[in-house]
Design goal:
Order of helices and strands: EHEHEEEHEHEEEHEE
Structural class: alpha+beta
Largest sheet: 5 strands, mixed
Oligomer: single chain
Number of strands: 11
Strand content: 25-35%
């Protein structure tokens, strides 16, 4: 079971949340480098549904880095992401570029407190939960907050950008 704390100092995401004065809870757990999925590992460690835990992915939409926040129970629909931001083509960003741009390591990229604030789209399924979890800025640390607070703090667009595992792209 993940350890629940009110705050965990250190990450830019936690600093941003604290500065904004929004309600949040951190969940720390021991990260297993051998686990095949960062997001599924977080959901298992916290004992919550993978539909309530969201992963942060960085994509390139027509040459512009864009953050996509989708449930770990599914995958990113790149065509839907491009459409959501008025673009034509999207592809996953180079991992090294995503790390340099956000200031976070892969598996710990948070939609909050990024080195360079990127355009953000959150899958609309987030609004079906009173709270959701996303990376707090390092592997083994999640933050739980309301979807509306995450949307406001990231100036995100809500759109249907996720698809369930096993469902092919449109």
């Amino acid at each position: 079971m993940a350890k629940k704390t009110k705050q965990a100092a250190g990450t830019p995401a936690i600093v941003a949340l604290t500065a904004a004065g929004v309600a949040f809870t951190t969940h720390a757990y021991e990260h297993d480098p051998a686990h095949p999925s960062y997001g599924e590992e977080a959901a298992e460690a916290m004992g919550v549904s993978p539909t309530q835990v969201f992963k942060t992915l960085v994509a390139d939409v027509d040459g512009v880095l864009t953050v996509a926040v989708v449930p770990v129970s599914g995958s990113l629909d790149l065509k839907a992401l491009a459409t959501a931001v008025g673009g034509k083509r999207a592809a996953m960003a180079d991992p090294a570029l995503a790390e340099r741009t956000t200031g976070y390591v892969r598996g710990g990229i948070s939609p909050l407190g990024q080195r360079k604030r990127l355009r953000t789209v959150i899958d609309e399924s987030a609004t079906t939960h009173p709270t959701i979890c996303c990376s707090a800025g390092r592997r083994g640390l999640e933050v739980e907050l309301s979807p509306s607070d995450l949307t406001t703090l990231t100036s995100a667009t809500l759109a249907p950008i996720a698809r369930p595992w096993g469902v092919s792209a449109r």
